[in-house]
Amino acid sequence: MTAQPQPATIRRIIGPTILLGSGTYFDFESPEAAELMIEDVAYSLAFQSRFTGQCVSRRTGKRAYYSIAQHCVLMAHYADPPHKLAALLHEVGEATCGDLNSPLKAICPDYKRVEKRCEAAGLKRFGITMTDPAYIKHLDTRMLITERRDLMPWNGEEWIESAQPFETEIFPWENPHMAATMFLDTYHALRECAQ
Q1: What's the rounded Cα separation, in Å, for the pair 33 and 42?
Q2: Residue 130 burial by CB count (10 A; 0-12/13-18/19+): exposed, middle or buried?
Q3: What crossing angle do the helices spanning 133-151 and 68-78 adopt, rounded to 10°?
Q4: Of 47, 144, 141, 145, nearest to 98 (Cα)?
Q5: Which of 16, 65, 135, 169 is a Cys-bridge partner for 28, taking CB atoms 3.0 to 4.6 Å apart?
Q6: How far apart are CA 78 and CA 166, in angstroms?
Q7: What would the pLDDT profile of 115-141 be if each residue is shown by its tens digit?
Q8: How far lies 93's CA from each of 8, 37, 194, in Å?
Q9: DSSP 3-state of 102
Q10: Could you tell me which residues come within 8 angstroms of residue 3 by beta carbon, excluding any fewer than 6 positions away?
């Protein structure tokens, strides 16, 4: 009689918990206890598109993939030196919560509450203090206006408060793996500079 192979032990997670690419678990009821890795953040943001995937290149008129990771790297580039890491990681909550577009997020207060808690836990995990949230919000608004100009089929409708776009045109990176690599390279370079 041949012995039957035993099923592999499977760790069963009960409750609002997800398995991350690093092999660690993230519990939405206890995000402060998570062992979130910077690679988890980089790859999650690299594989998520801004604007719910509705980007269109103004140059080609064709659909374009533009990742949240690229958005963060570009924003960190424009930030003043003491705020570069905060700018790079300002979307850390979306690495575990996913990106919900702003109009939908505005009518989902429970989601916003959970995302803000996950963001705070992620910033703390990576030792980032948001010393000037108004400055980060201003940069994010300028990024949005630049992205709208370069990557959305915008026809002049009123969206948000007025701010100046950045001068340089945005060209989406080749693929999510490139975006993750650029995010990680930027993170490690900024960490090195901070020491």
Answers
A1: 19
A2: middle
A3: 120
A4: 47
A5: 16
A6: 9
A7: 999 999 999 999 999 999 999 999 999
A8: 33, 13, 23
A9: helix
A10: none
Angle at alpha carbon of residue 42, lines to 59 and 14, rounded to 5°? 125
Q: Sign of dihedral through CA atoms 164, 59, 53, 122?
A: negative
Q: Assign 146 a pLDDT band (cuts: 50, 70, 90).
A: very high
Structure tokens at 159: 């969206």
The whole-angstrom separation of Cα 84 and Cα 99 is 21
Contact status, residue 24 vs residue 18, Cβ threshold 8 Å:
no
For residue 25, the surrounding DSSP H or E stretch is strand 25-27
Count CB atoms within 10 A of the CB of residue 195.
4
Question: With 80 as the cut, is the pLDDT of residue 167 above it?
Answer: yes
DSSP 148: H
CATH 3.30.450.20 fits 38-194, yes or no: no
C-alpha 171/C-alpha 121 separation (Å) is 32
Given this model, what pLDDT does residue 163 score?
A: 84
Q: Any idea which residue has 């580039």 for tokens? A: 77
